[in-house]
Specification:
Largest sheet: 6 strands, mixed
Strand order of the largest sheet: 2-1-3-4-6-5
CATH architecture: 3-Layer(aba) Sandwich
Number of strands: 6
CATH superfamily: Vaccinia Virus protein VP39
Shape: elongated
Number of domains: 1
Oligomer: single chain
Strand content: 15-25%
Number of helices: 11
Order of helices and strands: HHHEEHEHEHHHEHHHE
Length: 260
């Protein structure tokens, strides 16, 4: 018999049954981003959260159906959130227009077939579909690009173009830039624009999926170079103004697609 623990991985390009241990400690919802997501959901009372993971950005004031392929991620959900259903974006176990809204936060780039997943979000939602994602074309604004051009290439390969996501979701889609605060609590790479030392912590890097796609030796090279540049003051000479910048105009985008 196949159990939730032994179910085959169905979730896309990163196997979070292997990579998801400790994820919830590094990837904690930032309250300012969460507020934007909640606002985008409007007055929806029933919401499906696809790629729900450990529950970041999941509203607590409405009925949520979380869908998550990784048992390891499901096990990290706090007790106050609903248990997640084992499933994948490409085949949601819901009827047509069965929920008021659908959401997917920082996950669409990891789906095996993001277009099919987007069609499923639209199929099951009577109202808005809310997708939090990254704009690959804007990633080179971040100082990390000067250390890791390989990261930019890989992330642009993985990230579906923003315009294509909006069209795939159908309806009237709005794309909202998401500025990051200097003390952003989520652990994706741009959240540390003012805190370069964080990248020397292996636990921080393990909470960022892109490292798994870099060529052998690139991560080790980066750690050596950043360590040297921080000790010698080179990072601060080139990028030190970011240490006190209250916000960063990041590559994060909130796409809100409403039925017309």
């Amino acid at each position: 018999m196949t159990t939730a623990h032994s179910a085959p991985w169905i979730g896309g390009d990163v196997d979070y049954n292997s990579a998801g241990h400790g994820y919830s400690l590094q990837r904690r919802a930032d309250p300012r981003i969460a507020s934007m997501v909640l606002h985008a959901l409007g007055d929806a009372r029933t919401v499906v959260n696809v790629g729900a993971g450990a529950g970041s950005y999941e509203p607590t004031d409405r009925h949520v159906i979380p869908i998550e392929p990784s048992q390891v991620m499901r096990s990290q959900r706090p007790a106050h959130l609903a248990p997640a259903v084992h499933g994948a974006a490409e085949s949601l176990p819901l009827d047509d227009r069965s929920v008021d809204a659908a959401m997917a936060t920082l996950t669409i780039h990891q789906w095996a077939d993001w277009r099919r997943g987007a069609a499923e979000l639209r199929r099951v939602a009577r109202g808005p579909v809310v997708v939090l994602t990254f704009d690959g074309d804007a990633m080179d604004r971040f100082w990390l690009a000067s250390y890791l051009p390989e990261m930019i290439r890989e992330e642009r390969r993985r990230m579906p173009p923003i315009g294509e996501i909006a069209r795939a979701l159908g309806g009237a889609a709005e794309v909202v830039p998401v500025p990051l605060a200097i003390d952003c609590t989520d652990g994706f790479s741009e959240a540390f624009y003012a805190r370069p030392e964080a990248f020397l912590d292996e636990r921080v890097r393990r909470g960022q999926s892109f490292w798994r796609f870099l060529p052998t030796g690139v991560e080790e090279r980066f750690v050596r170079q950043l360590t040297d540049d921080l000790r010698g003051g080179e990072w601060d000479r080139r990028h030190g103004h970011w240490r006190t910048a209250p916000f960063f105009e990041s590559a994060v985008r909130l796409i809100v697609a409403r039925r017309v």
